[in-house]
Amino acid sequence: MAEISENKERFCSLLRSTERENIEYVIEDLETYGFFEAPASVRNHYNYPGGLLAHSLNVYDMAMTLREGIIKMRPEMEKSLPVNSIILSSLLHDTCKSNIYRRVTRKRRNEIGIWEDVEEYEVNYSALPIGHGEKSIVMLLRMGLDLEDDEIMAIRWHMGAWDVDRTSIEQDKNYREAQRRSPLVALLHSADTLAAQILERDQPTE
Q1: Among the residues of the chain, which ranges form H helices?
Q2: What pLDDT was estimated at residue 205?
Q3: Strand, coil or helix: what is 116?
Q4: Do 191 and 90 form a contact (C-beta atoms < 8 A)?
C-alpha cells in the first residue's frame, strides 16, 4: 500500500503540473472508478493491485526518455512533443481499465495436485463496450478534460497497428493519417510497448 500511495502522489502531482482545466475533477473520478488500485492486466504485466498506476508512470517515464533522445537527434521536433501532452496522454491512456477488473476466488490445483483457493482478476467490458482507446477518450471527456487533438489521437491509437481492423479501409487510413499528423501517436505507442515488454518484464530466475 505504501508503493501505491507514493505512486499516486507522483501521478497526481504530474497531472496537476499541466494546469489543465478540470484536472481535479479527473483525479476525483479516477479515484471513484478505482484507477489507483486496479491491475494493469489479468495475467500479463503488473497484474496486481496498483499495477495500472505503476504501468502508467512507467509509460510516462519511457515517453519522456524517448522525447529527450528524439530532440537530441531532431531539435525541431520539440514543439511537436509538448511535455504537458506527454504527461496527459501517457498517464491517462489506460483510463478505460479503471473499472473493468474485479477480484474473484477460484479453485486451482497447486504444484502437488491439491485444490486450493486462488485470488485473481476477471474482466467485464459491459460498462461501456466501445473499444480500448476510444473508451479512455470518452471517459476523460466526460470527466471534463479538454484534450488536444494530438492527445486524442495518441490515446486512441496507443495500441498501434494491433488495434487496427485490417478489413476496415477507414480504420487503416485513420491510423495512418493520425501517425502522419502527430509524432505523439508513435511516441506513446512506443513508450507503452517498451514499458510493458521491457520495463515490466519478469526478472529471470537463476
Answers
A1: 2-17, 23-33, 51-73, 83-92, 132-142, 149-156, 169-181, 183-194
A2: 44
A3: strand
A4: yes
